[in-house]
Write a structure and sequence with these properties.
This protein has 218 residues and is an all-alpha fold. A hairpin with a 5-residue loop joins strand 1 and strand 2.
């Protein structure tokens, strides 16, 4: 197989990320997969607020406190700022929620018809489906990073670059401890942007210009 070493490299890195992420000691502790917390809670909050609680202006924060207590979300509720007339705003941009929305809708459809799990936006099906989706986003980023590097370099240099980048920077740490963070989404978005930009200037096909239409997660 041509360029097999770089392919083996991204597969090995991806498997390692999945293994160490699922091996974290507090994974699935108290029905909390550990990633809809801290800043990620704010990035994700648009989805349940809009499609479950019909409270986009966050006039009633009772449901927010309830789900945080139910799923053992740590830290203070610093994600929301007061606005006028008793309303509130989420201080994070909504791009991450838009990108995570396909996984959210899959999980919500399942939970709506499930007698075992609550359709509250945070029960284990939501967290597990979104985690799998985040893994997919990470793999797409690695896959197109390899394709982009192979345009300019041979397989050996591409393999070394992938390994140095993934293991020698904070990329590996971010993907293990903060899988659903905007960092991973941004990385994949930038790789796709650069790759499609190259294709546009090389082949000038309209589809390459139109494919990259996802919003920024920040």
């Amino acid at each position: 197989m041509k360029n097999k070493n770089s392919l083996i490299a991204i597969i090995a890195v991806f498997i390692s990320i999945c293994y160490f992420r699922l091996d974290i000691h507090n994974f699935d502790n108290n029905d909390n997969a550990g990633f809809l917390t801290w800043d990620n809670f704010g990035y994700y909050l648009y989805l349940p607020a809009t499609f479950i609680y019909d409270d986009t202006e966050l006039e009633n924060l009772d449901w927010v406190y309830e789900v945080r207590e139910k799923y053992n979300h740590p830290a203070a509720l610093y994600h929301i700022l007061p606005a006028q007339d008793g309303k509130h705003v989420i201080k994070y941009s909504l791009g991450t929620s838009v990108i995570l929305s396909p996984a959210f809708f899959v999980a919500h459809t399942y939970c709506t018809f499930s007698e075992k799990h609550d359709a509250d936006g945070f029960s284990s099906p939501y967290q597990n489906v979104i985690l799998i989706y985040a893994f997919l986003i990470a793999f797409i980023g690695l896959f197109y990073l390899r394709k982009l590097l192979l345009i300019y370099f041979n397989d050996k240099i591409t393999t070394i670059t992938i390994l140095v980048f993934c293991l020698g920077t904070n990329y590996f740490q971010i993907l293990i401890n903060n899988t659903v963070s905007p960092h991973s989404i941004l990385f994949t978005s930038y790789v796709l942007l650069i790759y499609l930009t190259y294709k546009w200037y090389t082949y000038e096909k309209v589809k390459d210009c139109l494919l990259y239409t996802s919003p920024s997660p920040r």
